[in-house]
Write a structure and sequence with these properties.
With 509 residues, the chain is an alpha/beta fold. The protein contains 15 helices and 26 strands. 27% of the residues lie in helices and 25% in strands. The longest helix is centred in the N-terminal third of the chain and has 17 residues. It is globular, with a radius of gyration of 23 Å.
């Protein structure tokens, strides 16, 4: 598959949305039954653009969205693209302090927020603030209802900034990552091609508004699919809507919750074409059980804030639980050692990427931006391996690598062995300080309904049959619930903080 094209005039609205496409067909439908048709999008976004422009928004300025999911929220992004402005998605579940940091750091020309977050925005001193609720009401839609549409589209190049997404901030305050129009268009079109998205598809969209824009919404736009929007993942709502959909994308936590419901079966998903997973590792047994239950094989992909989706399986690939596919068309992936030297197929090392439209950098941080690249290769900070066919297996963040007694332990390998033990619902393996080994391997597990019979000593004995001695956990901690972020991923940094002193009582050698 060759690289997809990005037009010379790279306005994202023009590149991803065709206003002439079947005007009467449903473009988006909300959970309360509100519908936006393809033929309505041009006029609505032109009026939104006019309102934003009247508030001082123009090419290169920021528009912040702190919103529950709604058709109007997605149309806000498209209106921002029309103006050549930079969209700033902020998760509505963030604390006031987190929102204050991002708004203060970026200085958006306009903020559109859910009414519940108005006080937090007012505290930042932002001047141009609109409200937009999940039901479509608010000063933003009211103000745009009778305004003269602004139909002209701002010119853009592939290097024009389109969005700024703030990193998770697990090692400090989050930083804004600037994404170009070229990157957004290329990524969306590439994924639409890899996943075979077409006008007959219906995406059931249950991912968060801020985190589900790129990698979920934009590929659907590029392929001309319709979307059913759910405010968030809830098993009951997803089960009710799946018979109307053809594509569903979510993190492994979503799939484990669906699998726990006996109604989730082949008959229910008979009309589905594709299930996409990612953002966190999928257990091998869960991957196999999903296929057996539904007749569908999950399609995995791998991405980062700075480069969007980097690798993905294709719809025609033979998919495995432990691989996230090959580099997107026109891009490259390599596995390197600590000196940046490429490693042989199958060897574990750091993942680096080279894409046709590179990451623009971190907001107001040229030093961090420079460190993100080795020549023109983006340094992901993740480690993994690649087979002879170019299929990538991601083993974890570089920060997750455990060095115990001078030997490298990759958490995913230990977690896979733990997850195979009866009673373990999910595991997280971390490194914590140890007076003798420098770092110790510590396992944290969450048990399932059969977990009452789980025994730490017996579990460690079972691990000895499949793991080298230095990879064995020094102990196993049991938690009722794992700490998770907004996408359901286990927050290992919080686990490290909690168990930082776990082995401090041991004498030094």
């Amino acid at each position: 598959m060759n690289t997809v094209s990005v037009p010379a005039d790279a306005n994202v609205f023009a590149a991803l949305f065709d206003p002439t496409r079947e005007p009467d067909r449903i473009f988006m439908e909300s959970c309360d039954g509100r519908r936006i048709r393809f033929g309505e999008v041009d006029d609505i976004t032109a009026r939104y653009a006019a309102l934003l422009a009247g508030s001082g928004v123009g090419p290169g300025s920021f528009v912040a969205g702190i919103l529950e999911k709604s058709p109007e929220g997605i149309l806000l992004y498209l209106a921002t693209c029309r103006l050549g402005a930079i969209y700033l998605p902020i998760h509505i579940g963030m604390s006031d302090a987190e929102i204050g940091h991002i708004v203060g750091d970026a200085g958006p020309a306009a903020v559109v927020c859910d009414p519940s977050r108005r006080a937090a925005i007012d505290a930042t001193g932002a001047e141009s603030v609109f409200t937009l609720a999940s039901d479509g009401s608010g000063t933003f839609t009211e103000g745009s209802a009778s305004i003269q549409p602004r139909r002209e589209l701002a010119a853009a190049t592939a290097d024009t900034p389109n969005a700024m997404v703030y990193t998770s901030g697990t090692t400090g305050k989050p930083k804004g990552a600037l994404l170009s129009c070229g990157s957004v268009i290329w990524n969306a079109r590439s994924l639409a091609a890899c996943w075979g998205i077409h006008a007959g598809d219906v995406l059931l969209h249950a991912n968060p508004m801020a985190y589900g824009l790129f990698g979920t919404t934009t590929p659907a736009l590029a392929g001309g699919a319709s979307m059913i929007l759910l405010p968030k993942f809830e098993t009951e709502a997803v089960l009710a809507q799946l018979p109307r959909a053809t594509i569903f994308a979510g993190v492994p936590t979503y799939y484990s919750r669906l699998m726990a419901d006996p109604r989730f079966d082949r008959e229910l998903v008979g009309g589905m074409r594709l299930f996409v997973t990612g953002s966190a590792p999928m257990r091998t047994d869960s991957f196999a059980a999903f296929s057996q239950r539904t007749g569908h094989v999950l399609l995995d992909r791998y991405g980062l804030t700075e480069v969007l989706i980097a690798t993905s399986n294709r719809v025609g690939d033979q998919r495995r639980a432990d691989n996230s596919g090959a580099a997107l068309p026109g891009s490259q992936v390599r596995i390197v050692d600590g000196d940046g030297e490429p490693l042989r197929p199958g060897a574990v090392g750091m993942i680096e990427l080279r894409q046709p439209y590179r990451f623009l950098g971190y907001w107001r941080d040229p030093e961090k931006t420079a460190k993100a690249f080795r020549d023109d290769w983006f340094v992901t900070g993740d480690f993994g391996r690649m087979d002879e066919d170019g299929q990538v297996s991601v083993l974890g963040r570089g920060a997750d690598l455990i060095i115990t007694g001078g030997l490298n332990v990759y958490p995913k390998e230990v977690e896979a062995a733990l997850n195979a033990i009866d009673g373990v619902l999910e595991s997280a393996v971390i490194g914590v300080p140890h007076p003798d080994f420098g770092e110790a391997v510590l396992a944290v597990v969450q048990l399932d309904g059969a977990g009452a019979a789980f025994d730490r000593s017996e579990a460690l004995k079972k691990l000895k049959s499949s793991l080298s001695g230095y990879k064995l956990p020094k102990d196993i901690e049991i938690l009722e619930d794992m700490p998770r972020n907004k996408l359901g991923k286990v927050q290992k940094n919080l686990l490290r903080q909690r168990f930082l002193s776990r082995f401090d009582h041991l004498p030094r050698p």
